[in-house]
Amino acid sequence: MTEHTVPLTGAPVSRRATALTPPPAGVWCALPMILLFLLGFLGPLGMVVLYSFMPRGSFSPIGRPTLENYVDIVAQNFHISFGWSLWLALLSTAILLLVCYPLALAIQRASPGRGILITVLIVAPLFVAENIRLQGWVLFLDKAGVLGGSLQALFGWELDSLVNNVPAIVFGICYIYLPFMLFPMLLGLASVPHDAREAALDLGASRWRLFRDIELPLAAPGILIGSLLCFVISLGAFSEAKFLGKGVIVTIAQDIESAFTFGQNWPRGSALSVLVILIAGVAVFLAMRQVRLENLLGRR
Q1: Which pLDDT does position 300 carry in this prediction?
Q2: Domains identified in the chain, total number
């Protein structure tokens, strides 16, 4: 009978034996999602990048590459739209940070019943389409709308329209994307041990020092992820400026939509989209360098 020798520990394994080792079961389980990611995300993204180098007005991805679409972005003052979109994204993210942090603390410290009630009230509007909710605010805030009509009927006060301006757009962005800031922040605050708070207060720490030295460092991953989500989504905000702004400003998302539809200039729309993706990608890269997902997900 032929004896099979077992290699000693640390003995080199042949390359042929390593090559024949089947992949782990997790790879096969993840294969459908990998294929969906390649076909549903990287494929369209590659087409957008390819179209951005096609001649203006072209409908075919096959042609002589050119940079004229990127030159047109600078020559035709599209930087103004980029500036408005960046400003709205940064401003709305800062406002949501200030609003959501005390709200997250209130939910965390509330009784289970009240916490669930507040969460349901925040989540419930998500079951209604964004355009319908924004149109509802237009009907409420516009001149002779629900608010203005009620004040005029009850007190004789004539209220001008509260829409068609930049503050109304910022309000709409904050209203729509508040849950995307709140729930990652709740997840971050959940990683702050209650014992650490009590120990700091027992040692005489002020409320500001408790926030600066304990709550903020431990909750930072959730705060960063919430800020990143709100910034990236707000950067491409379209409906808020359309419904609540009604043309008072033009965001980059509106320019992209116009290039693909009315302008019938797919290469220009693709070039604008590529620049937005690059800005969002840089923000994601810088934020993820500061975040340890293991801590946020509870892995030590």
Answers
A1: 46
A2: 1
